[in-house]
Design brief:
2 copies of one chain form a homodimer. By secondary structure, chain A is mainly beta. The first copy, chain A, is built from 1 helix and 13 strands, in the order E-E-E-E-E-E-E-E-E-E-E-E-E-H. The N and C termini of chain A lie far apart (38 Å).
Chain lengths: 168, 168
């Protein structure tokens, strides 16, 4: 299978799931409010521009699980804080069976998360304010190439309810 | 000069400054929070992917004025509310001397604003929460191709202070 290996470089952190990476993003202080960088074609994680959209997540809400056959996700959280869970059940993946959690959001976790195709993902908003995921995906949205499972689906060894029992 | 005319179509609104347009953007309700579309290559306003970043604006703060020689801006406000002012002093522009104000932000003004090169722009956050501009520009940031003027520069017939005397 395609392993999606990205060359090692400063600020780039493997997540522990083959093809998934984190990249630290720059926050540039400015009068009136900071500038938050996200993505440009020379980023080590850039894979093409397909679609840019936001997913707002109400405090405590869970959006899970989803998997794409072809689309690569590039997530950052410019406002609010999120916990993203990833699960790899890809046949022949060197990290098959691995579950990882990743935090996104300012000030400590303003970074880019790359989720490769065929990896399950979901997320929940932490704290008391809505959180905003910005996704800059490599191909346009196509409902035919994504599948969903229920947040508590037994095939994925993760419980949003138990991880986050109060929903907060 | 290049006029940057975009073919007329549903949801596309000329701003009154040559080459500047607004495009209504879809907000798709979903369990846990809505999905907010912003840009894809088949958008009538898409001009290439150069850089994606955010500018956060503190309540009442003014970020102005700026002008780019080559870069086209594509602004949307996924959180908070903003007033953007545009001023056209381009020689040979059919709308030379025109000043326009545009509101961006949910729920009523979630839309894409295209600002062509060589048009002055600035913005201020309305309301009591920080506002977030997402810009998906057609070329990467290059400090050599932008110029700035003071918010109250006398060459531009607009006063942020008078327009917004309380800073709120």
């Amino acid at each position: 299978m395609k392993t999606n290996v990205v060359p090692e470089q400063d600020g780039l952190l493997p997540v522990g799931i083959d093809g998934a990476y984190l990249l630290e993003l720059k926050v540039i202080p400015a009068a009136g409010g900071p500038v938050l960088r996200m993505l440009r074609p020379d980023s080590p994680l850039f894979a093409g521009f397909g679609e840019l959209y936001f997913s707002e997540v109400e405090p405590g809400a869970v959006k899970a699980w989803k998997q794409h056959a072809r689309q690569t996700q590039h997530f950052a959280a410019p406002s609010g804080r999120l916990r993203v869970a990833l699960y790899d059940d890809r046949e022949a993946s060197p990290t098959r069976g691995t579950l990882r959690e990743v935090l996104l959001g300012r000030p400590d976790h303003y970074r880019l998360l790359r989720i490769p195709p065929r990896v399950w993902y979901g997320f929940t908003a932490l704290g008391t304010a809505p959180a905003l995921i910005c996704n800059c995906a490599d191909i346009p949205h196509d409902p035919a190439e994504s599948i969903r499972r229920d947040p508590e689906d037994a095939s994925i060894p993760y419980s949003w309810r138990e991880r986050n029992p109060t929903g907060s």
